[in-house]
Amino acid sequence: RPHDKVLTSRSAVLTMAAVQQARVLSTCSLAQTSSVSRCASVVRGTPLRASVALPAAARSQAVTVAREAAWAPGSEAPAHLDGSMAGDFGFDPLYLGADPAKLKWYREAELQHARWAMLATAGILAENVLRPDVFFYSAATEAPAPFSIGGIIAVQFLSMHWAEVRRWRDIEEINSVNADPIFSNQSLPDHTDASYPGGIFDPLNFSKGDLDSMKLKEIKNGRLAMLAFVGMIAEAQVTGENPLDAWKEHVADPWNTTVFNAVLAGGGWFHFSGPGCAIPSSVVFEGITIPTPCLPFFGL
User: Which of 108, 188, 222, 227 allows an S-S link to 199, with CB 3.0 to 4.6 Å?
Assistant: First the structure.
């Protein structure tokens, strides 16, 4: 049939190009408005184009070719990671996001954790610079509070619950909660992504520029911040010091002040007790005992 012959011809062209320049990786779509379709792919960073004359009946068809996973050169990205999300480098070895609904939820969760981690790491470093005499791990218990801890927790619980429920509703049905139910003169503009609603959440109008580039920068910095936060917590639990103090000690004696030395000092990687925990197992704040356990691999 003419339609089958067109697809067969196109497959032959792609196969020949792949043999000449390695493997073709990307998604190829047939043009809707031209009799000639161009398939632009990337072979190890080099653009590759192939042209095929197509009749009008075949212009609405599409051919999909696997794309390379940037995090592991030479491997293929899972089919459900098509590169449309910011920071999509084809990483999902366990196929956790194979379900589109779960993938959408995981992206929202990643963004929220990334944003909190960026705030946390910036706050820890700022406190370390401004008040180096205060250990960041226990700084909250030493800061004067205008209200009781019970009142603060109650306000935080209610306000966070209110904000998160509305964010969840926007994820489930986009633009469904744009209008403020209390202040009717306040509302969010219509948006296509619940993670980037704009309006009051974009006071510097970053979305007016290259939003895709900003999304990529945000997720990259957020992922780095999540790793940094875990590192700061682990370092504090092992040394009982602020991150900048530990960094200064490492710079002063880089060969003998490392995470490996700390682990070996505690009996090695497989020693049951690990390098030990330098923080107390709990703290008392306004009469409330708050557990502060170490990470499991640091021992008791």
Answer: 188
